[in-house]
Amino acid sequence: MAQAGANVVVADKDVGLGEIVVGEIEALGRTALLSKVDVRESEQVSEMVQGCMLKFGRVDILVNNAGGFFVAPVMEISEKGWDAVVRLNLKSTFLCSKAVAGIMMEKKKGVILNIASSSGEGPSPGSAHYGAAKAGVISLTQTLAVEWAPYVRVNAIAPGVIATPGTRFIWEDETRRARIESGVPLGRYGQPEDIAAAALYLVSDASDYVTGQVLDVNGGRRPTVESGPKERN
Predict the structure, then answer these.
(1) The pTM is what?
(2) C-alpha distances in angstroms, 213 versus 92, 141, 208?
(3) Residue 167: inside a domain, yes or no?
(4) Cβ neighbours for 10, distance < 8 A, ≥ 6 positions apart
(5) Continuous segment of H or E residues that includes residue 42
(6) Beta strands in 46-142 (DSSP E)
(7) Which tens digit of pLDDT belongs to each residue from 76-94?
(8) Structural domain tally of the chain?
C-alpha cells in the first residue's frame, strides 16, 4: 500500500518487527507511524486510532490482520483456549472496525478489509475455535457492509494455504507440502504477496462498487474434511 502511495500506521505488539516495516515504508518515500498495540484491548485500540488522527488527521483504510490458532480437537480445547482464539481473531476485528467507523462515517468515505480464512468457510477439524472465529469475521464483514453503507465499504479475504511464518511447520515439511500442493489447482503454496495484491484491489477505488464480499485467494483449492487443520491457513 505504501508502494501505491499510502501513508501507513504499523500496528503491532512487536516493536522490533514494527520498526523494520516502518523503515521499509519510509524508504519508499511515504510516512509511517509505529503504534504498539494489543488489538484485543479496546483502550489500546482507541489510543492507536487517536495516534493516527494526530499524525495524519484521517483514517481512510483499516486492515484487520491479527490472527492465530493452535491445533487441537474440540474435546481438548479448554474454555480458556477457545476464548483466546476467538478474542484474537474475531473480537479484535470488531474493536478495530468500530473504532474507525465513526471517523469514516463523518468523512462519508472509508474502507475496511478483514482477513478471514478458508477455515471459516467449511469444516475445520482440529481447529474448530479458529474456524468458528473466522466464520464470525465473515459474518461480521457482511453485516457491517450493510449497516455502514453507503459510506464505508467492508470486505474480506479468505486465504488458503499461505507460506507464512505461522505455517512454517507445514510448508517446510517437503512430503506434506507436496501433498498439499497436489490438491491446489494452481500447483503451489500461496505467498504473502498474493494476499497483498488482493488487499490492494479491495481497498482501492478499483473496487468502489464492491462491498460485503469475501474474496477467496486459495489457488483454486477447496477445503475438505480430510485436509485437516494442519493444512489450512
Answers:
(1) 0.92
(2) 20, 8, 12
(3) yes
(4) 18, 21, 22, 25, 32, 33, 34, 35
(5) helix 42-56
(6) 61-64, 110-115
(7) 999 999 999 999 999 999 9
(8) 1
- In the three-class reduction of DSSP (H, G, I as helix; E, B as strand; rest coil), residue 100 is classed as helix
The model's pLDDT over 176-230, given as tens digits with 9 standing for 90+, comes to: 888 888 889 999 889 999 999 999 999 999 999 999 999 999 999 876 654 444 4
Q: Is 209 a catalytic site residue?
A: no
Residues in the chain: 233
> Sheet harboring 110-115: ordered strands across?
61-64, 110-115, 152-159, 214-217
Domain with 175 in it: 58-231
Quote the Cα angle for 119-210-59, to 5°. 90
Grid cell digits, residue 71 = 491445533
Residue 24 lies in a domain: no
Which residues partner with 154 through β-bridges? Answer: 112
Q: Which residues contact 21 (CB under 8 A, 6 or more apart)?
A: 10, 12, 32
Describe the crossing of helices 79-86 and 128-147 by its angle, rounded to 10 degrees.
Answer: 40
Tens digit of each residue's pLDDT (9 = 90 or more) over 29-54: 999 999 999 999 999 999 999 999 99
Grid coordinates standing for 162?
499461505
Q: Read off the CATH number of the domain in which 214 is found.
A: 3.40.50.720
| Residue 8: C-alpha distances to residues 91, 153, 188 (Å) | 23, 19, 30
